[in-house]
Amino acid sequence: MAARLPRQGAALDVAGGAGRHALWLAERGLDVTLVDVSPVGLALAERRASERGLALTTVARDLEEEPLPAGPWDLIVVVNYLERALFPRFAEILVPGGLLLLAHPTVRNLERHARPSRRFLLERGEAAELLAGLTILEGGEAWTEGGRHEARYLARRP
Predict the structure, then answer these.
(1) If you ran DSSP here, which 8-state letter would residue 88 be given?
(2) Residue 2 has what pLDDT?
(3) Which of 93, 126, 132, 136 could be stapled to 122 by a disulfide with Cβ–Cβ 3.0 to 4.6 Å?
């Protein structure tokens, strides 16, 4: 979905850990904020950004207890993090026309892998339901090249 993602504007990487996606977005030209609970992961992301000469804002926050950074955001990226209660808020903090990229394993992943456990996996069709209020541009559920069953969606705020 890279070709459909913006090359400018404000991006939020939700629970992005050590910054793999945040750094890629910053290299594309986006003004990126990475929010994560782990100070160790955030420090690693900051170091990697500095080594590459990239600007990166980091926010240490437990998203199960504290709110998302307010935005507004042109792009929100949520990869391998599932806090269902956040999804209604994503639509609110995106700018009109802003994009949400979601990639997360589904329960079918358990056919080949014991982990993550079911409570951390999307049910069949659940991703599309969580994106209610957004217009789905692209996506679905399938086995990836790496052997995981994932829901991958790109959605836009009307």
Answers:
(1) H
(2) 93
(3) 126
Which residue in 129, 31, 103 sits closest to 71, CA to CA? 31
Give the helix/strand (H/E) hosting 12: strand 10-14
d(CA 77, CA 87): 12
Q: Please, how many CA atoms are within 13 Å of residue 93, restricted to the half-sphere of its CB?
A: 19
Instruction: Tell me, letter by letter, the H, E, C secondary structure of 16-59.
Output: CCCCHHHHHHHHHCCEEEEEECCHHHHHHHHHHHHHHCCCCEEE
User: What are the tokens at 104?
Assistant: 């997360």
**Coil, helix or strand at residue 110:** helix
Report the chain's mean pLDDT, rounded to a whole number. Answer: 96
Which residues are CB-contacts of 51 (< 8 A; sequence separation ≥ 6)? none
Q: Convert the pLDDT of each residue in 58-104 to its tens digit.
A: 999 999 999 999 999 999 999 999 999 999 999 999 999 999 999 99
Cis peptide upstream of residue 72 (ω within 30 degrees of 0): yes
Whole-angstrom Cα distance, residue 143 to residue 154?
17
pTM summary value: 0.96
Neighbour-count burial for 46-70, b at 16+ CB within 10 Å, e otherwise: bebbeeeebebbbeebebeeeebbe
